[in-house]
Amino acid sequence: MDPVTRPSQGNNLFSGFTRLCKGLALVLVAEHALLQLFPFAVSYLALIPARTIPFAWNLITAGYTEQTLPGVAISVVGLLFIGKFLEPLWGSREFFKFIVVVNILISICIFVTAIALYYITTQESYLYTPVSGFHGILAGFLVGIKQLMPDEELSFFFLLKIRAKWIPTLLAIILVAVSVFIREAVSYLPTVLFGIYMGWLYLRYFQKNSESGLKGDPSDEFSFSSFFPEFLRPILDPVALLFDKMLCGKRFHTSSESSEFVLGGVSLPGSDPIEASRRRERGARALEQRLGTEKLADADGSKEGALLASHGDASEIV
């Protein structure tokens, strides 16, 4: 039997990538290739706080500029596989809007932080160190997974199982710990931390649901304190409530029957906890359907391959 005609197993894992994700992946690869051909281009594409005022486009281009080969590889793989899950649930327009908005917010935060650190420490390295990479957006994607399927257990290296709601927190803790021992990891820390927070901020208050037209996710399961262990939440909740009022003028009322965000006694858009619950249910169903489809495709491929192999063995005997 010709081995070329035998179906391969597991191909479904590497299929189903959306056109938007493939296009953005091509942009990441192209910008990395441009830096390899013209190293001086990093001054125009990466975020350099001292040059941001004349080169304001760096606030946009920095998020799509990977300076290292491992960085671009991780970004492309993360974009394709996470995007394959998130984009169908959010919609292509909202998925792209999330990337654009969160990317700009991350860059603005890094710029402001670098300027503040310079005035505090007077070290010019904060002003002239190029900062770039897609890893902030990837961190924001993990917050989206936390929102849609918080109680889903994900396996890592076939040994460790972690609930999806703890993945952003675990990423932040690991990166902080690694930064203590590896100096190069410090450059990734602000982007990832701001990516987690800005991803949560956008999903919490501003993301528009294409089906209901409501904005945000005010559920307790997606509160700011949900990123932290249970014993810290009584301390964090009052602080988070203060930011709620500052950001959206929302007041949080709790009763024995229901809890909702209101302004002047009128429920605000996106304040329906039932809608937030439905969003998580859709995420869980989508994951189950995707995993079921992949398992079914693998099983069909195995059966077909075994059938073709048996025909080939029979023909050899004849």
Explain what you see:
The chain has 318 residues and is mostly helical. It has one domain: Rhomboid-like (Rhomboid-like fold, Up-down Bundle), CATH 1.20.1540. Helices cover 60% and strands 6% of the residues. It has eleven helices and five strands, in the order αααααααββαααβββα. The strands form two sheets. It has a three-stranded antiparallel beta sheet, covered by helices on one side. A hairpin with a 4-residue loop joins strand 3 and strand 4. Helix 4 packs parallel to helix 7. The N terminus and C terminus are likely disordered. It is found in: Membrane. This is Rhomboid protein. Its main location: membrane. Keywords: Membrane, Transmembrane, Transmembrane helix. Pfam families: DUF1751.
Nutshell version of this structure?
Helices cover 60% and strands 6% of the residues. With 318 residues, it is mainly α.
Strand content range: 5-15%
- Report the span from N to C terminus: 13 Å
CATH class: Mainly Alpha
Question: Which CATH architecture would you pick?
Answer: Up-down Bundle
Total number of beta strands:
5
Assembly form of the protein: single chain
Q: Supply the number of structural domains.
A: 1
